[in-house]
Design brief:
It is built from 8 helices and 9 strands. It is an alpha/beta fold. Helix 1 links the parallel strand 1 and strand 2.
Length: about 240
């Protein structure tokens, strides 16, 4: 077996990865497909942690446009991430992968409270750890939660799953001549306004010298190729 490039990774998933063709809700078939890809990587010996969004269930922007309080909208999004986390946990465990869901907001009946040292211990024991409820604070995105948790658990890379297979010079759907960056520095990404993660998450990764790998979660075998260090997606680095 080829040597692994990364031993411990933080996978950032958008909620849309769990949705069906409509882009809304939780599609059991999509969740099972996603779980099988995580299992494939986990089986190689990689320690896998996951932060998941809730865009398939709730978008706070819609509430804000109607005058909703920002903190309330954000807390609703955190609850949505917990639904997605439990869905992914169930699919993984039905596929034989030991999993723990840890929540930044205490809800002991369904998830463990997030404790950094306990999360690391779960990873060391070979469990997939799913972090729910973002950072537990309003005004911070799940991108920021991913950067924060990756730093805390000493992950070697943040793997950002998207709909496209990397970062491009332009929108490949609008510009056929757009080309994919194999790698780009943090400074280049800022200068070229490449929207890799939101500004807070990006700054945290840059300050901690934590690389970001952007790839397509819908491309067969892509996640495994990323952790093996193959030419897949775009690496953002110091």
């Amino acid at each position: 077996m080829p040597e692994l490039k990364y031993k411990r990774v933080l996978l950032k998933l958008g909620g849309e990865a769990l949705a069906g063709p409509s882009g809304f809700g939780i599609d059991p078939t999509e969740v099972e497909s996603l779980a099988s890809r995580v299992k494939e990587v986990h089986a190689t010996g990689v320690e896998v942690a996951v932060v998941i969004g809730a865009g398939n269930l709730w978008r706070g922007k819609q509430g804000l446009e109607r005058g909703m309080d920002r903190a309330t909208a954000d807390y609703m999004g955190m609850l949505g991430t917990m639904m997605n986390a439990l869905s992914l946990m169930d699919a993984l465990e039905r596929d034989g992968v030991l999993t723990r869901v840890m929540s930044a907001i205490e809800m002991r009946a369904i998830a463990e409270p997030y404790i950094r040292r306990r999360a690391i211990r779960h990873l060391e024991k070979g469990r997939v750890v799913i972090f729910g409820a973002g950072t537990g604070n309003p005004f911070f995105s799940t991108d920021t939660a991913a950067a924060l948790r990756a730093t805390e658990i000493e992950a070697q890379v943040v793997i950002k799953a998207t709909k496209v297979d990397g970062v491009y010079t332009a929108d490949p759907k609008k510009d056929p001549s757009a080309t994919r960056y194999a790698s780009v520095s943090f400074d280049e990404a800022i200068a070229k306004n490449l929207q890799v993660l939101d500004a807070t998450a990006f700054a945290l990764c840059r300050d901690q010298k934590l690389p970001i790998k952007v790839f397509s979660i819908f491309k067969p075998g892509a996640l495994r190729r990323v952790v093996m260090g193959e030419d897949e997606g775009t690496l953002v680095h110091v």
